[in-house]
Amino acid sequence: MPPSRTHIRELVTAYLGRHPGERPTLGPLLEALDAPGEVTARATLPGHITCSAAVVDHDGRMLHVQHNASGGKWLLPGGHVEPEDATLMAAAVREVHEETGIPPAALCQSAAFCHEPADIDFHPIDANPAKGEPAHQHYDFRFVFHLVPPSTETTVQAVQIFTALWQGHPDSAGLREGILLHWSTPGMLDRLPQSPGLGDLIRRHAAQHPPATTRPDPHHRLPADGTPSGTELHVVGVHLYLQDSDGRVLLGLRHPDSAYAGRLWHTLAGHCEREDAVSSLIREAEEEAGLILDREAIDLVHLVHSQDSSTASPRIQLFFRARSWSGVPQVREPDRCVEWRWFNPKDLPDNTVPYTRQAIEAILAGRPYSDMGWAR
């Protein structure tokens, strides 16, 4: 079954909620959704839905392809929706795989948009007498993805694609404000590459489109009634030190858009809410990975007292070992973690969160406490 109209309407509604000024431009699409016929079918005229993917690698470059029928234009991977595509995002992922050989497992969705399109473009398509197609319109839903591994090989579909290339300048791919806004927030700008290319384009866009409102200072702390004078409030984090039968430790690869530790390996972790630390750990393990922990088989094995800066709240990072559990690690919060993997604790990946590496080394050495970031 192709994507349902309910699914498509939800995506369009969410998109127009972000870009209400585009409602007149998308009028033909809204009319098509109310008309009979399958709006995702290639034969539906005068227009139908297509899907494209903006795939960004670790260096901030975007994947472009040259379609044989495009006259040499550099475009985003994409194409028509097939009947087996359950969602429009699934269609975009399939097109990336078919056109460039990049497997779906190598892609993760943008945390800023998740399953929603970053852009919906409306453009005319010339007649194709060879295929018996008159001139018509494409309503192109464009989704943003990050490349999970540092690099990947591309194998183009020679029948349709001449070549594929990672490029820094995406202007020719028709990127519009929706996709550019994804990287235009201050936190994302800080992580952009300094080299010419996509980073420069986005910085120019951000300078031309400043935020409408001032964001609150994330380090601002309200006074706590009854707190002794001079007390510094701390954030408490809980972490799961989980080993399999071979002694390997479980780590998760943080989503590239994560506000903390994007593209770094980290233990399953979370912040304590108004609950005890063990209950917090049990909740986080089920929410993030579908693991069920036994409260009576959880031991505190290490504490890291850390400080990132003089303005941020200090942190108490508690590491707990679970001696028994049930379930297989699953990616249940893909906007935070894109993969779970078991590692030899003595051979952790280079891109491991520093205090996580420090804690694991201390646990192996039997040390219950360490600290990080404090001036001596």
**Count of helices?**
8
The fold-level CATH name of the largest domain is Nucleoside Triphosphate Pyrophosphohydrolase
CATH superfamily of the largest domain: Nucleoside Triphosphate Pyrophosphohydrolase
Helix/strand/pairing category: alpha+beta
The level of helicity is 10-25%
- Net shape: elongated
Count of β-strands = 18
SSE order and pairing:
Blueprint: H1 5-18, H2 27-34, E1 47-56, E2 62-67, E3 74-75, E4 78-80, H3 88-100, E5 107-109, E6 119-125, E7 136-147, E8 161-167, H4 177-182, H5 186-190, H6 198-208, E9 235-241, E10 249-254, E11 265-266, E12 268-271, H7 277-289, E13 292-293, E14 298-306, E15 315-322, E16 325-326, E17 337-343, H8 354-365, E18 369-372
Parallel strand pairs: 1-7, 9-15, 14-18
Antiparallel strand pairs: 1-4, 2-3, 2-8, 5-7, 6-7, 9-12, 10-11, 10-17, 13-16, 14-15
Structure commentary:
The chain has 376 residues and is an alpha+beta fold. The protein folds into two domains: 5-178, Nucleoside Triphosphate Pyrophosphohydrolase; 235-372, Alpha-Beta Complex (Nucleoside Triphosphate Pyrophosphohydrolase). The protein is 22% helix and 27% strand. The strands form five sheets. Strands 1, 4, 5, 6 and 7 form a five-stranded mixed sheet that branches. Strands 12-9-15-14-18 form a five-stranded mixed sheet, with helices on both faces. A three-stranded antiparallel sheet has the order 3-2-8, with no helix packed on it. Residues 169-174, 181-206 and 208-225 have low confidence and may be disordered.
